[in-house]
Each structure stands twice: as structure tokens, then as C-alpha cells.
Recover the amino acids of this structure.
């Protein structure tokens, strides 16, 4: 029910359509595994699908104007604007976006198809992060049929497996790369959904198109999965070129925003000399802070320039760090794949 950040610790090279705000997006037709090309004078970003020497696969789709949208032949269209542009005198580039929540790689909540759950507040913020993160099994579904009870039984998924990603004919047909919505997509029939609920321990279901259900059983299959409020659906996965097997999946839907609506220029942040000291004297490549800017307001641009000029440091702003003890954690931070955007909403979690 929301755009999603998703990786497997265990992908996408799509050219974006030009818009007035974003006439071209360099590097989108390359999958070379390196950080930059073109030299320091004319750097060209190279986009990757695999990170960490083959350990991390990004299985979420990039957001582009031509990606499919529900029951539309025209894709999602323009979703990104640049109202604040440095070329027009702004201090910094600052984009805005507008997207349906079931666009690209996304999750469904019980309130998606059950109105009493929607009214009761079973939204994205109520989804269980433990279910959304952990060991997952990637399986190949027989390519000549939808996911029926017979197909589910034939897959022989062991008891105890809680997260399964189903790769289907949708991947072979590259349906997520076509802007026209396709009602012939492969998905669960109602009897397949019922078999899964009754005979497995699966709590997270992933699939490779905009709906987990076959179009002919669209609502019945969703109702079977979501009525019990235990199963989370992850739709629109990018599962090409990944071997079947066991992986660690990390899936982080966006949640609600911060507590005070008024922007506070008295926020604490880095002064320029603090930023310079960090760059020169540490190996830090990711900096997180607990407000909308990493920099003190009086040094807003100078501090950002120190951090970002070298293109090695990533800034994560607006973290919620209350009630967490200082110490060492594993951080998982997955921004949306927004082509042409200079920033992105992100959801971050800490794991002990």
C-alpha cells in the first residue's frame, strides 16, 4: 500500500522518458558495476543492480514515467517535478513527487481490500518489520499456469519457511518494463491462496507484477491473504537474473512523517568546520542525523558542500532516534529508486 524500498542480501537498466523538468537522465542504459565514469570534470553516474561483490541484489523497480500503472495503457506519467532549482536561483535542488501508493514495487495492507480494516487504521505503519526482514526463499513457478492449489502443492515449500518470493512468467514477459497494464499477468487463484494459508507457515508473499492475484481472481485471492492480518503482500518485484534459493530479504515501506509541522531553524547540525574535520579525519561514508538537515541552519549550504562534493558520503536526514541506546547496530536504509531525483524518502531500521 506504499512505495517500497527492497533489497535482497542475496535489479534494472531502463531508460527514462524525457520530461520538461528532467530532459535526460544519464547512465540509465548502463549496468556497469562502478561508481562513476567520465572523469572528475564530467562525471556520469553508473547505476547498479548488484552491490557488495555479488552479495546484495536490488529487486525493487526504478520509478520511471513509463512504468505500468493499474489498468492504464499510459504508464504512471510524470511523477517528479523540480520546483526549486539551483539553475533558477534556489539555494539547492529540491524535487517533489506524486505517486499512487500501489506503484512499482510496493506492499499491500489489509485495508487495501477490506474497508473495516482501513477504517480501523491497519495502515502501512502497522506492518510487522520482523516479517518484512529475514530469510526468504525465491522459487520458480511453472510457466504455463497461474498459482493454483495444485501448483502450490507441487512447489513443496517446507514447513517453517516464512517468506517466499514467487517468480513467474511475468518476469519472462518483462511485464513490469511495459507501460501498458496487462490483465493476463500470472498470479494466485483463490484455491492457491487458500492452500498456502492452510498448509504453509508463509507470512510474506512476493510476486513479480503489480498484483499478487490473477486478474480473474483479483479480490477473492486478496481477501484470502489479508483477512487474517498475518500475511504481508509484496508486489512488483524485479526478480530477473537471480538464482532460486535462500536469501535475506529487507523490505522497508515508507511510514508516517515527523512530529512537528513547523520547520525549526534552531535545529542542531554540522557547522562547516565540523564537516571538514569529519571528512579529513574519519572513514565515515554514511552520516545520519535526527532532523531534516544534517547541517546547522547558519551553515546549511557550506556544510552540505563539504560532505557531498567528493561524492563518497551519503546523508540520511530526519532519523527517529529516541529511546535507542548508543552502541553498534546493523543499519538498513533503502531509498526509493527515483530516476532524476536529488533526494528520496527512505525508511531506516536498526538491528542489534
Amino acid at each position: 500500500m506504499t512505495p517500497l524500498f527492497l533489497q535482497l542480501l542475496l535489479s534494472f537498466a531502463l531508460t527514462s522518458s524525457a520530461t520538461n523538468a528532467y530532459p535526460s537522465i544519464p547512465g540509465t542504459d548502463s549496468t556497469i558495476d562502478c561508481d562513476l565514469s567520465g572523469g572528475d570534470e564530467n562525471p556520469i553516474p553508473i547505476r547498479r543492480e548488484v552491490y557488495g561483490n555479488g552479495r546484495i541484489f536490488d529487486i525493487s523497480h526504478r520509478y520511471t514515467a513509463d512504468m505500468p500503472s493499474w489498468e492504464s495503457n499510459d504508464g504512471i506519467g510524470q511523477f517528479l517535478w523540480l520546483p526549486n532549482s539551483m539553475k533558477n536561483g534556489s539555494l539547492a535542488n529540491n524535487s517533489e513527487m506524486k505517486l499512487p501508493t500501489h506503484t512499482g514495487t510496493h506492499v499491500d495492507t489489509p485495508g487495501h481490500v477490506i474497508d473495516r480494516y482501513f477504517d480501523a487504521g491497519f495502515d502501512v505503519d502497522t506492518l510487522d518489520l520482523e516479517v518484512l526482514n529475514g530469510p526468504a526463499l525465491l522459487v520458480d513457478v511453472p510457466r504455463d499456469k497461474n498459482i493454483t492449489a495444485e501448483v502450490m502443492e507441487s512447489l513443496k515449500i517446507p514447513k517453517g519457511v516464512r517468506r517466499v518470493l514467487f517468480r513467474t512468467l511475468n518476469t519472462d514477459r518483462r511485464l513490469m518494463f511495459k507501460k501498458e497494464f496487462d490483465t493476463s499477468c500470472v498470479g494466485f487463484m483463490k484455491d492457491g491462496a487458500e492452500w498456502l494459508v492452510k498448509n504453509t507457515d508463509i507470512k510474506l508473499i512476493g510476486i513479480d507484477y503489480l498484483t499478487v492475484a490473477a486478474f480473474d481472481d483479483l479480490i477473492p485471492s486478496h481477501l484470502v491473504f489479508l483477512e487474517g492480518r498475518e500475511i504481508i503482500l509484496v508486489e512488483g518485484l524485479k526478480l530477473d537474473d537471480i538464482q532460486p534459493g535462500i536469501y535475506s530479504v529487507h523490505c522497508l515501506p515508507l511510514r508516517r512523517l515527523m512530529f512537528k509541522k513547523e520547520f525549526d531553524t534552531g535545529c542542531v547540525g554540522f557547522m562547516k568546520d565540523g564537516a571538514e574535520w569529519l571528512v579529513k579525519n574519519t572513514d565515515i561514508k554514511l552520516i545520519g542525523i535526527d532532523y531534516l538537515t544534517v547541517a546547522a541552519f547558519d551553515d546549511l549550504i557550506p556544510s552540505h558542500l563539504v560532505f557531498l562534493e567528493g561524492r563518497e558520503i551519503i546523508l540520511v536526514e530526519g532519523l527517529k532516534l529516541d529511546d535507542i541506546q548508543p552502541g553498534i547496530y546493523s543499519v538498513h536504509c533503502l531509498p526509493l529508486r527515483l530516476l532524476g531525483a536529488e533526494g528520496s524518502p527512505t525508511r531506516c531500521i536498526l538491528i542489534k
